[in-house]
Every structure is written in C-alpha cells, then in structure tokens.
Design goal:
InterPro entries: MetI-like, MetI-like_sf, Phosphate_PstC, Phosphate_Transport_Permease
Main location: membrane
CATH topology of the largest domain: MetI-like fold
Helix content: over 70%
Distance between the termini: 47 Å
Family: Belongs to the binding-protein-dependent transport system permease family. CysTW subfamily.
Shape: globular
GO biological process, one term: phosphate ion transport
GO molecular function, one term: phosphate transmembrane transporter activity
Number of domains: 2
Order of helices and strands: HHEEHHHHHHHHHH
Number of helices: 12
CATH architecture of the largest domain: Orthogonal Bundle
C-alpha cells in the first residue's frame, strides 16, 4: 500500500513538473508570436532591409524615418562596454572570494555583493546623473556626462552581483583534488588559479557572463536616465546614445494605438529578442565546447 502511494505521488509530481516546463515554453512562445504578429503589420508598410540598415530613427517627423541601426549600435556599445568593465572585475572578485579570502571575510563580502542586486535600477540611474556623469564630464571636458560611457559603467555595476555570485560558485565547485595535484607539481596558488581552477570553472563563468550580458542588454531605466537618449549614430563612448529598451520605454506610452509608429516598437522588440537569443546561443556554444574539452 505504501509502495503504491509513493508511486502515485511520483507520477503526480512528474506531471506537475512537466506541466510547468511546458507552461514556460508556452509563455515564451506566446510572447514571441505576439511580438511577431504586430511586427508583421509594420513590415507590410516598411521594408525590413530599410528598417535594419536605416541610419535615422525619427517616427514623428513629417516624413517618418524608421531606421533602427543607430539604436542597435547604441545598445551594443553600452552593453559591450559594460562587459569590458564587469568581466575582469567580476571574475577577479569571484576568484578572490573563493581562493584568497579568509572564511570571516567571505561571510561578510559575499552577502554584501549579493545585496547590490537589490538596489533598484532607478537609484543606479540617479547616481549616474548626479555622480558618475558629472565626473566623466569634468575629466574629459564635456558639456555633460550623459553618454554611452556613463551607461556602460552603471550597467557594469548592475551586472557585477550576477557575475560574481555565479562565477564564485563555479570556481568553488572545482574539485579540491585539481588544486592539490597542481600544488603537488610545485605550482603556486596563482599558477593553479590561472591554469587549473579558472579553466575548469569556465562553463560556469561563461554562463555568469551571459547572464550579466542579458541583464545589460535588457536594462531600461538606468540607460534611459544616464545615456542622453539621442537617436543618432554614435561614434564613441563619449557620445549620447539611445538604446532599444529606452526607445520602447519612452515612446510606447505616447504613441497612437495601431499606427505605423506603434507597430514599429514591436519590430524593435523583436530585434531585441533576437539579440538576446544570439548572446545566449553563443554562450551555450562555448559552454558546450569547454564541457567536451574537460570530458576528453
């Protein structure tokens, strides 16, 4: 009797967990097809090639322009700039916490870093306006600091808790026998960390970086407040930019319903969806390569 009850509970649990998995896929598919349905209405009026390669975004002009290329480049510059800052800081901090920090320091440092993730994005954006932006302007003799560099610094701060936490878990999960074997061959702690521990933890570290990149690409409020929101083709990190997420946030509340401009925002969302998807697929590719390398 007890055996039959356990089997029944296992079957029910299996059905519940399978249903939740399919529900997530259904929700993701529903969001994608909703975006695609509205984007098609836009592409019936505007050529997809002109949309992707156009160098001007000005939907409210007398002759509306729906070129998304400046928005794509702006989003890429800010996100990649954030990763250039966050990856070395994040992985370095994770390595310090896992390999060098004392147990007492680790119990204080790790929860403190994780608490950074709880800071609202509007607060980070406010700090960018009143602190980071003026500092950038003063150091580089600029009229204001609302530019891509400001956004990259703020997004790096927001991505750090994710990168540090997951990277530290990945480094900590490397078997101790790897380290002991390296020490037994005469390697120092630094050599072991650089040539043994971090390569062994690479799949987890790459996953952390991809999650941080996803956070940077999809962030809205911070870049809306700190990057200047100029829909022009940026030439560098000191130019004001307008990201895809900021464009949707600014214009969706004011655009007339079921107009070309309205449907254009869904087309932008589709582009953002694919940018995030490509980043995840690239991360998954390198994760699988490292796993096969270690398995061999």
């Amino acid at each position: 009797m007890q055996y039959k009850k356990r089997i029944t509970i296992d079957k029910i649990a299996k059905i519940i967990f399978k249903s939740t998995g399919y529900l997530v896929l259904a929700l993701l598919g529903g969001i994608f097809f909703m975006l695609l349905y509205n984007a098609i209405a836009f592409f019936l009026e505007v050529s997809p090639l002109d949309f992707i390669t156009g160098s001007q975004w000005n939907p409210t002009a007398a002759e509306p322009a729906y070129g998304i290329l400046p928005l794509i480049v702006s989003t890429s510059i800010v996100s990649l700039g954030a990763m250039l800052i966050a990856i070395p800081l994040g992985v370095g901090t994770a390595a310090f916490i896992s390999e060098y920090a004392s147990p007492k320091l680790k119990t204080v440092l790790k929860p403190t870093i994780e608490m950074l993730a709880a800071i609202p994005s509007v607060v980070i954006g406010f700090l960018g306006i009143v602190l980071v932006g003026p500092g950038i302007a003063d150091l580089n003799n600029l009229p204001n600091g609302l530019n891509a560099l400001n956004g990259a610094i703020l997004l790096a701060i927001m991505a750090l808790p994710t990168i540090i936490t997951i990277s530290e878990d990945a480094i900590h999960a490397v078997p101790q026998t790897y380290r002991e074997a390296s020490y037994g061959l005469g390697a120092s702690r630094w050599q072991t960390l650089r040539k043994i521990t971090i390569p062994a933890a690479a799949p987890g570290i790459i996953a952390a970086v991809m999650l941080g990149l996803g956070r940077a690409i999809g962030e809205t409020m911070t870049v809306l407040m700190a990057t200047g929101n100029a829909a022009i083709f940026p030439k560098g990190f000191f130019d004001s930019v307008k990201t895809i997420t900021a464009t949707i946030a600014i214009e969706m509340g004011e655009v007339p319903y079921q107009t070309t401009h309205y449907y254009a925002l869904f087309a932008i969302a589709i582009v953002l969806f694919f940018m995030t998807l490509v980043a995840n697929l690239i991360g998954e590719y390198f994760i699988n390569r490292f796993r096969k390398y270690h398995a061999a």
